[in-house]
Amino acid sequence: MIRALYTAASGMSAQQLNLDTIANNLANSSTVGFRQRALQFQDMIYQNLVTPGAAQSQQTVSAGLQIGLGTKSAATEIIMTQGDMNQTNNPYDLAIQGSGFFQVQRPDGTIAYTRAGNFFLNDQGTIVDPQGDQLIPAVTIPPTATAITITQYGVVNATLPGQQNPQQLGQLQLATFANPGGLESIGSNLLAATLSSGDAVLGNPGGNEGLGTLQQGYLENSNVDVVGAFVQMVLAQRAYESNSKVIRAADDMYSQVNNMVR
Q1: Can you give the residue ranges of every domain in the chain?
Q2: Flagellar basal body rod protein N-terminal domain location, by residue (predicted)?
Q3: pLDDT per position as a tens digit, 64-90
């Protein structure tokens, strides 16, 4: 009975963390480029009352008698499905149709990755994200430039004074990873490479690396399935209630055992 108390408590703790993950997904359902996370569970160690394979006689062996000791959260995985496109008509808003990440350089010099393409120009005309982190490769737009266009292959063109034909100002690149689900979320719509994700592989949009293409004037919405998240929330609540009932039942049984000596 004591074992049941701790086993059910582990289930309640795991479902509480599951609900925290679902709540974060729902809170970011309107965040540009957000990637929802899914919590993975695994069972804990087992108590062997009879070891599997133990000899019962010279001719037979036991199938074993094992009691599980609960569950625990193992990892949170980033779900990399495509989000819906939202048209903004802002020339510096970019959405990735397909795989890949934008690269931005943080103030400490490190490179971070993001699916959020809501970019702006800073006071020097350089394309940056809302935190002021510079888009890599750097592209600077002259203040007199007009008709800014970014092709689906990442070529940045603009018309300059005294010129009839557009001039190429830069070439955008995207990054991909062997395991995008292993990236680390560091806040502000940014992700960092880890040993689990592997090193970034760079390439032009729509190139031979299998990277997606760019859509100018669009933003990619969060890929959170709100309806699915509510279903997962209900399931987490029911699993939490079931584990709490196990604790209540074990407590009642323990109470009856204590009353037997009176």
Answers
A1: 2-78+224-259, 85-220
A2: 5-35
A3: 787 888 898 888 888 989 999 999 999
